[in-house]
Write a structure and sequence with these properties.
388 residues, alpha/beta, Aspartate Aminotransferase, domain 2, 2 domains, 5-stranded mixed beta sheet, 4-stranded antiparallel beta sheet, globular, binds pyridoxal-5'-phosphate
């Protein structure tokens, strides 16, 4: 390697429009530093350097339960919530415990690339269901379920990013959520609700979560501090039926290593309890909204009429559809030559060819000047390729 990658996968000196990371200037590191000092000065701080309670930091569990009650009117008991090392940990743990090689699951087409990786590692048969502007197409899901039932291949779960989906930014509508809850009951599969972008919203209201609609049955919901605090702290949470949470808490991994990241969980718990988190989230929403607006304006100015893109109301991503005669591979080659990196649509599909004309653009990481420059260069490259 002649170039030094900076944060995960970012090539120094490039414009990384692929990076679904929070921008460095949006990480509240000086507040966290103050909290580290305050946690450090607690008389029993040494316990945070030992193995932690398997279910995770109790102060944080209580804070999150109260917040869910306050903001969504959800009654969450202690036994319904555990602290995990980020949503990724949750997806891996659920996959490990609730599926075996060859099992069927349902995913969106497109779906979150790194979750598809986990499912591939576990040798699952991921059945992809198309989405449109309102999220997954329920009729198609129902047809697929009927077919799978006739072959005795019913899915173990449906994995979904319901709000501001990665990669498209699309939010799944309320009626579709309800219809999917009904299907999950009829066909006996779980819903894995990976809700990492919920708090990065530029609108006031969101449809109720699957967890709320189902009354907490047959749904495992994941949340994280990666998008609203810092991914490097590796703290998130899982909500689910008490018996499933108990099973995870009693799993070999937690028995062996204890609960998630006791030291950083204590810092996060103080960040939350002091009111800093809510304040930071409110500020972040404006910051990301400005970035989203800037990206949309740059797309309007740079792209040919034959390109189309989503207008997300939250999250980190915009999904761009290229003109018919332009492929993502061609754009990637030319963009890389100009030091612009984006996420190829191919990674987000079970069948990569389905993403051959798509690009995921992230507006979360790069400064607005780079966002404008990067999109403007991409627009030029795409126009050149279209006019060949
Ligand atoms: C849909 C989705 N799930 C999970 C993650 C990773 O979350 P965490 O850092 O909490 O593991 C991401 C990050 O990009 C994501 O987009």
């Amino acid at each position: 390697m002649d170039l030094q990658p900076t944060p995960q996968g970012v090539v120094a000196g490039s414009i990384p429009l692929f990076a679904g990371h929070p921008a460095h200037e949006l990480l509240p590191i000086s507040t966290v530093r103050t909290l580290v000092d305050s946690v450090w000065s607690q008389p029993d701080v040494v316990r945070l350097f030992n193995y932690g309670d398997e279910q995770g930091n109790q102060q944080l569990i209580d804070f999150l339960s109260a917040r869910l009650q306050r903001s969504e009117n959800l009654s969450i008991c202690r036994e319904n919530l555990m602290i995990i090392g980020g949503s990724t940990w949750g997806v891996e743990m659920i996959t490990h415990h609730l599926t075996g090689p060859g099992d069927t699951i349902l995913v969106d087409a497109p779906s979150y690339r790194d979750a598809l990786h986990i499912f591939r590692d576990a040798k699952l048969d991921a059945q992809a269901i198309s989405i449109d502007g309102g999220g997954v197409i329920v009729d198609e899901m129902e047809r697929r379920l009927r077919d799978l039932a006739s072959r005795k291949r019913l899915p173990k779960f449906y994995y979904v990013v319901p709000n501001f989906q990665n990669p498209t930014g699309i939010t799944l509508g309320r009626e579709r959520r309800q219809a999917i809850v009904d299907l999950s009951k009829a066909y006996g599969f779980l819903i894995i609700e990976d809700d990492v972008y919920r708090d990065i919203r530029f609108v006031n209201d969101l449809p109720p979560s699957f967890y709320a609609l189902s009354g907490g049955e047959k749904v495992l919901r994941l949340g994280t501090f990666s998008k609203t605090l810092a991914p490097g702290l590796r703290i998130g949470w899982l909500i689910g039926p008490a018996e499933t949470v108990k099973r995870f808490v009693n799993s070999g991994m937690l028995r062996m290593g204890g609960g998630a990241n006791p030291f950083t969980a204590a810092i996060v718990a103080d960040f939350c309890s002091s009111g800093n988190w809510e304040e930071h989230v409110a500020w972040l929403r404006n910051q990301y909204k400005d970035r989203r607006d800037c990206a949309l304006a740059a797309l309007d100015a740079a792209m040919p009429h034959s390109a189309h893109w989503t207008k997300p109301e939250g999250g980190y991503f915009i999904w761009l559809r290229l003109p018919e005669n332009v492929t993502v591979d061609e754009v990637e080659d030319r963009a890389k030559a100009e030091n612009i990196y984006f996420a190829s649509g191919k990674g987000f599909f079970v069948d990569p060819e389905d993403g051959a004309h798509h690009i995921r653009l992230s507006f979360s990481y790069v400064p607005v000047d780079d966002l404008q420059t990067g999109i403007s260069i991409l627009g030029r490259v795409i126009k050149q390729l279209e006019g060949r």
